[in-house]
């Protein structure tokens, strides 16, 4: 009987904590978000350097089939620069992965963070998750989130290949990004 009473008392005590603590947290959190409702649109322009060759490649294959290209998956830590030249000012890094996800045409699944290291966006990032049909002149991919100044971000990125080396796979891609954030 004593153990039943102890169990009932503990159950009642812990049930009370689990109900009251989240309610207070949720209420306080909602008030903080309500004060941040001034949305801004930022337009970003930079160049993505995807280097598969040389002594210091910034992209490397981590998975793929024994024959063909469908399923090839690359992990990247690519430079994002102010201009198309590799020596241009470094603005940040593209970190994540892309995979050849289509069998009929060259198209990539992009899962990537653009982490900025320069200027007012230093320490902030935006997240891209979408399809990149690489043979199209301009590709549109969604911005699905972000951090720092880009918290709660949403928007789109337009990509245009500036240079591609068919032998090595190296590429420089121009990005124009419109992102809505708080």
Automatic annotation (TrEMBL):
<comment type="function">
    <text>Dirigent proteins impart stereoselectivity on the phenoxy radical-coupling reaction, yielding optically active lignans from two molecules of coniferyl alcohol in the biosynthesis of lignans, flavonolignans, and alkaloids and thus plays a central role in plant secondary metabolism.</text>
</comment>
<dbReference type="InterPro" id="IPR044859">
    <property type="entry name" value="Allene_oxi_cyc_Dirigent"/>
</dbReference>
<keyword id="KW-0732">Signal</keyword>
<protein>
    <recommendedName>
        <fullName>Dirigent protein</fullName>
    </recommendedName>
</protein>
<keyword id="KW-0964">Secreted</keyword>
<feature type="signal peptide">
    <location>
        <begin position="1"/>
        <end position="26"/>
    </location>
</feature>
<dbReference type="GO" id="GO:0009699">
    <property type="term" value="P:phenylpropanoid biosynthetic process"/>
</dbReference>
<dbReference type="InterPro" id="IPR004265">
    <property type="entry name" value="Dirigent"/>
</dbReference>
<comment type="subunit">
    <text>Homodimer.</text>
</comment>
<comment type="similarity">
    <text>Belongs to the plant dirigent protein family.</text>
</comment>
<keyword id="KW-0052">Apoplast</keyword>
<dbReference type="GO" id="GO:0048046">
    <property type="term" value="C:apoplast"/>
</dbReference>
<dbReference type="Pfam" id="PF03018">
    <property type="entry name" value="Dirigent"/>
</dbReference>
